[in-house]
Amino acid sequence: MRVPLLYLLLFISVSLPSSAANPEWVAQDKKIINEVTSLLKASPRTVERYFEKGIESGHNLGFGWRSRDAAIGGGYISIKAALYYYNGSLVSYTVYPGLPREQELKSKYVQWYSAGFKVSSAGVAPFRYNGALMQKPLSALVKPPTSQVATKAVVEYMSPESGLEYGDYGGYGMTMLQNREAFTQIQKGLSLEQVLLVMHSINPASRLTAIEYYLKNKELFTNRPQIEQWVETVFRELPEVESIDGCIGGKYNAKELVAKFTKTE
After folding, report:
1. At residue 142, does pLDDT exceed 60?
2. CB–CB of 93/47 below 8 Å?
3. How far is CA 48 from the centre of its chain?
4. What is the domain range of residue 109?
5. Which of 4, 62, 80, 162 has minimal Cβ neighbours within 10 Å of its Cβ?
């Protein structure tokens, strides 16, 4: 009895392993992992030169701050980096390790990363150089915040890592933007001092979200003339901010956006 070709091919495909690792891709990944883990022990400028070939985009954060995103591709993975500059000088960076989706490869990749990254059962943590700097307020803040005001959750929201797009929802699925989602996690417990602190974030999206909160709750704040002066400084320093209008991402007028969300929420 002849077996139909379709059934024969189906039997072969089921009998074979669901995924066989591509040795060339694995070798490419090992190469870039080894390169990056060795770079983390070098100077920031060396790290910058390595990732410059993979620069994807840049962001103006205002007040002398800028950031650049980069990615170096391998076989199964890419390793991403965010480079942060103040007045043109690299002062901080974060490297995000990539892991393959293939479960049989993950433990091997985690072991390779362990030469330069912190690894755990949860995976591989990003490597941050001078990361605490990005969580500090702009120097325009009147007085340094206390530890009770500058809590871990608040300063993490102030960092560019909480998302640079200001708004509420966007994209094809109309999902909540990363920065807005992060704000909802801390909003309920915010004190007025913390709102003022966030208004001085390096992250422009966090600054505007705090300004939006202030404009909705003006009656709760004292020294409003001083706050209003800072709000105008923020709008003047960075007139356009990254956002998403429906499915269209781009730069939009910051003052108009804040007015829009102040009225609609």
Report:
1. yes
2. yes
3. 18
4. 21-130
5. 4
Beta strand residue intervals within the chain, DSSP E: 55-62, 65-73, 78-86, 89-96, 119-120, 123-124, 127-129, 169-170, 175-176, 240-245, 248-253
Q: Is residue 188 part of a domain?
A: yes
Q: pLDDT per residue over 147-159, tens digit each?
A: 999 999 999 999 9
pLDDT over 70 percentage in the chain: 91
CB atoms within 10 A of CB 158: 25
Domain boundary among 130, 158, 174: 130
Instruction: Decide: 219 and 177 in contact? Cβ < 8 Å.
Output: no
Please state, in angstroms and rounded to a whole number, the distance separating the CA atoms of residues 46 and 123: 26
Query: Can you give the pLDDT at residue 264?
Result: 52
Task: For residue 43, tell me if it sits in a domain.
Answer: yes
Q: What is the pLDDT of residues 9-26, one digit of tens each?
A: 444 434 334 458 899 999
Give the list of residues 6+ apart from residue 113 with CB closer than 8 angstroms, or none. Answer: 33, 37, 97, 119, 124
Has residue 219 been placed in a domain? yes
Quick one: residue 183, left, alpha or beta (phi over 0 = left, psi -120 to 50 = alpha)?
alpha
Q: Identify the CA nearest to 83 among candidates 96, 97, 63, 69.
A: 69
- Residue 21 falls in which region: left (phi positive, over 0), alpha (psi -120 to 50) or beta: beta
> What percent of the chain has pLDDT above 90?
82
**52 contact partners, CB below 8 Å, separation of at least 6:** 70
